[in-house]
Specification:
Blueprint lengths: L11 H14 L4 E2 H8 L3 H13 L3 E5 L2 E4 L14 H9 L2 E3 L1 H7 L9 E6 L7 E4 L2 E7 L8 E6 L2 E6 L1 H10 L7 H12 L6 H11 L3 H13 L4 H9 L6 E2 L6 E5 L4 E4 L4 H6 L2
Parallel strand pairs: 5-7, 10-12
Antiparallel strand pairs: 1-3, 2-3, 4-5, 6-7, 8-9, 11-12
Helix pairs in contact: 1-2, 2-3, 5-6, 6-7, 6-8, 9-10
């Protein structure tokens, strides 16, 4: 959330230049390289344009060299909300919104999260990024694992989000992006009772991720929540690796379920998971 009482005026030529840039960026992130390209000026001149627009309040500087525009039709600005997903697309592309952020979008959870989960193939230093009071949790993925995506539009900006199946598989691949295994169980139950459910797609996506711990977590949870899905559970068993994994790597685990080669967290009540399903 950003606050500014009044926008300073800009000249006709400056407004024309900014308008031309926005025709190409569609209100998305603006960089000096883009300004240089679309206005056919040097990078130095492009930086000068951006500095001037920012000084007069027509664009926001969200990090060094990256800006977001304000609607040119506005005469004043008290509160303008900048969508985190648009910022993510501008900063971390190629990327997609996933984890608990995607679970919210697909109505698998009513919980509100402060951070937006972004999966990117970029090399980003650090997992948590704060941009103008907006927090992102960054998860690095190789490009071959960036599949199972849907396109949505926000203010004419093309955004990629994990589809319902990839949302579940990403959480089983790394429970941290789902808020931990207890919340993931609730999200998974919502998926299983939704119109999106397709367990065969879950198996195919799990294969593509090349992490057999996914099959352990998926098979174990299905055997508790939906034990009648014997075919899918048996497919999970076929893809188990010999080593042991944790149901949730962040939690202390002392009990091993040998059938699934899976360490279970302390105080994890299997009967409660089953009864709540």
């Amino acid at each position: 959330m950003y606050q500014k009482s009044n926008l300073a005026g800009i000249g006709k030529l400056s407004r024309q230049r900014l308008s031309k840039v926005l025709q190409y960026t569609h209100q998305g992130c603006i960089t000096s390289k883009l300004v240089s390209k679309y206005l056919e000026v040097s990078l130095r001149t492009a930086r000068g344009f951006l500095n001037g627009w920012a000084k007069n309040g027509w664009v926001y500087r969200i990090q060094r060299g990256v800006y977001l525009p304000i609607e040119l039709s506005l005469e004043s600005l008290d509160q303008t909300f900048i969508d985190p997903w648009i910022i993510a697309e501008g900063l971390y592309s190629p990327c997609y919104i996933g984890g608990w952020s995607a679970a919210e979008y697909w109505d698998f959870t009513e919980q509100i999260f402060e951070k937006t989960i972004v999966f990117t193939s970029q090399h980003i230093n650090g997992k948590i990024k704060n941009i103008k009071n907006i927090s992102f949790l960054i998860s690095k993925l190789n490009s071959d694992k960036m599949f199972g995506l849907k396109t949505i539009w926000k203010e004419q900006i093309k955004i990629q989000i994990s589809d319902p199946h990839k949302t579940i598989i990403d959480m089983l691949n790394d429970p941290a992006v789902g808020g931990g295994i207890r919340l993931i169980i609730d999200i998974f139950k919502k998926y299983l009772s939704s119109s999106y459910i397709n367990l065969e797609i879950l198996i195919e996506y799990a294969k593509k991720m090349k992490n057999r711990a996914i099959f352990k977590r998926l098979g174990f949870l299905l055997s508790i929540i939906k034990p009648e899905e014997k075919d899918i559970i048996n497919k999970c068993i076929q893809y188990l690796s010999k080593g042991n994994s944790k149901l949730d790597p962040k939690l202390r685990s002392r009990r091993l379920v040998k059938k699934w080669n899976l360490w279970i967290p302390e105080n994890f009540d299997i009967t409660k998971v089953s009864n709540d399903s």
